[in-house]
């Protein structure tokens, strides 16, 4: 994995608290950050975590920028805060405190080369800035800096960054799985570099398999079988992580219905036995012997034409990739898994029944749902079946705090609940 940015890489573009996942497809790639359009040409061969300044392009479009690498970001607090007031009791928050009109501010944006110049002019023409407390001055500068901020940082994608980006864009993109919930799923299931792990998920944009594969790591003996309900697995997060090929091959993505059918049909064929008097006798499991015998005519009874091989048999088609994946997954299913994780949009009760036999004894089972009542039903069924012990339903709740000198408090707006987890350990 290269330490420098290459064409074809996925990038995380960070502008203050805003982050965006973008693929650097070619030198002509541009990205939209709000109303600004940014050319990414200058990123090639630059190290990750570098900071770049937005440089306006000449022409009519003042919202088009190129990137120029910088080593440091100007601190507006040190540049502009010279003196502060004791309190804000005499300050009236209205538009009359700013001497510049909207037209003059727009002209500043067109003429000034940097955001610090624009904010500096706004401070100079503010009647109340010097009278505000230092805390109020910092808030004012942060608000203006957010509007005119001219720096971006380029980061390498990570599970944490991708999870936060997907969560912020649309909670449904990750089925309500926030990063703290994801970390609990990984922790409860014990995913590591040793062992085989069974995962079913039905729509997290590849976040769950990417997190599993990240925990398994490269050059390990761990394997992940990723079951999904569709024809093609969602792998956006897997692609964005840019895992080595050897690590990617440790994750087998297969359709759950296809692989279960393949597995049970293979088991049925293995149970067929017996060759009697040159005629094959197929015996299925259970039932009356007469009802389970099927005689197939031997080659001795066939005519000369029947002995000639058919053209389709001579030139058989090579197995497709999904067939090879099914076979590889079935081989691991025969040896059973060290953990089962289910993150499903649909009710997981039947999925648990179908997959639980493939888990070794004394191994963790983790089921995620955004609805507590659904997990309560699964809890009662598993309790009655007595094949999973130490069953627990937990809610995932997180509070974010603003930590600043003399003003630590919870954020005003935050997401509290992030679904529920049903956990336990298999008995048999």
Automatic annotation (TrEMBL):
Basic and acidic residues: bias regions: 268-279, 289-316
Span list, region Disordered: 268-318
Gene3D superfamilies with a match to the protein in the record: Vaccinia Virus protein VP39
Domain of life: Eukaryota
Statement: the UniProt record of this protein carries the keyword Translocase: no
Subcellular localization, as worded in the UniProt entry: Nucleus
GO terms, biological process: tRNA methylation
Keywords in alphabetical order: Nucleus, tRNA processing
Classification via InterPro entries: SAM-dependent_MTases_sf, TRM6
A cellular component term, taken from the record's GO annotations: tRNA (m1A) methyltransferase complex
Entry keyword annotation includes RNA-binding: no
Family per record: Belongs to the TRM6/GCD10 family.
PANTHER family: TRANSLATION INITIATION FACTOR EIF3-RELATED, TRNA (ADENINE(58)-N(1))-METHYLTRANSFERASE NON-CATALYTIC SUBUNIT TRM6
Protein name: tRNA (adenine(58)-N(1))-methyltransferase non-catalytic subunit TRM6
Phylogenetic classification of the source organism: Eukaryota, Metazoa, Ecdysozoa, Arthropoda, Hexapoda
